[in-house]
Amino acid sequence: MATRTPAQIRTARRNGAKSRGPKTPQGNNRSSQNALKHGLSARTTVLNSESGEEFEKVRKSYVDYFRPANPVETDLVTEMAAARWRLRRAWSHETAILDYAIEKNEPGIQKEFLHCDPLARQGLAFLKLCDSSHSLNTIDRFESRYRRMFDRALRNLLQLRLQLKNCKTNPSPPRPPHAPTPPNPVPATPVAVY
After folding, report:
1. Could you give the number of structural domains in the chain?
2. 71 burial type by CB count under 10 A (0-12 exposed, 13-18 middle, 19+ buried)
């Protein structure tokens, strides 16, 4: 990398000082995604390149199925839908990465083999990815994370419902009001204990 001259540095600083950032909501939304690499650890559930309507369909299908009875249950059901959405994203990334690797390997395969069936092409692409890239390991790690998120939210939802059901069927008997206990009398003379 070439060293910049002092004049270039001053010009870059002057130009940078003029920038006031994006002006429109769309520009703000776009710039908030600038550091996004793969979307697997995104802070938002739906990325700009994804359909918010499709996510809402997934969320609504979970709400329709589980029929949450209160805001806590609604949060758990939404968490399940978000985990499933992100898991589907990971599957899409894995497919895209393998498709790309298969296409990228094609010239080498044609040189090396007279005939290579599609399954062998997939295997060779997978092998090359495993040897040269951490992408499949990263996707696998996020898939596991999303499955755990889904399972934990489902387990918490079922546990909450069981607790609420138990409270309704076996209400605790009312407790009597707390009565103060009388103070212990202090003996006037020491008592010998044998």
Report:
1. 1
2. exposed
Rounded to an integer, what distance in angstroms lies between the CA atom of residue 104 and that of residue 132? 13
In a domain, 1, yes or no: no
Q: Considering only CA atoms, which of 153, 148, 47, 43 is closest in space to residue 93?
A: 47
Is 8 within the bounds of a domain? no
Nearest residue to 102 via CA among 78, 84, 125, 118: 125
Tokens standing for 193?
Answer: 């204990």
**Consecutive 10-residue averages of pLDDT for the chain (194 residues):** 79 75 65 49 76 92 96 95 95 92 87 85 87 87 95 96 86 59 59 56
What is the maximum span of the chain, computed from C-alpha positions, in angstroms?
110
Residue 152's alpha-carbon distances to 88, 149, 160, in angstroms, are: 18, 5, 12
Quote the domain boundaries for residue 73.
49-168
CA dist., res. 90 & res. 84, Å (int): 10
Q: What pTM does this model have?
A: 0.61
Query: Is 160 domain-assigned?
Result: yes
Q: Does the residue 191 lie in any domain?
A: no
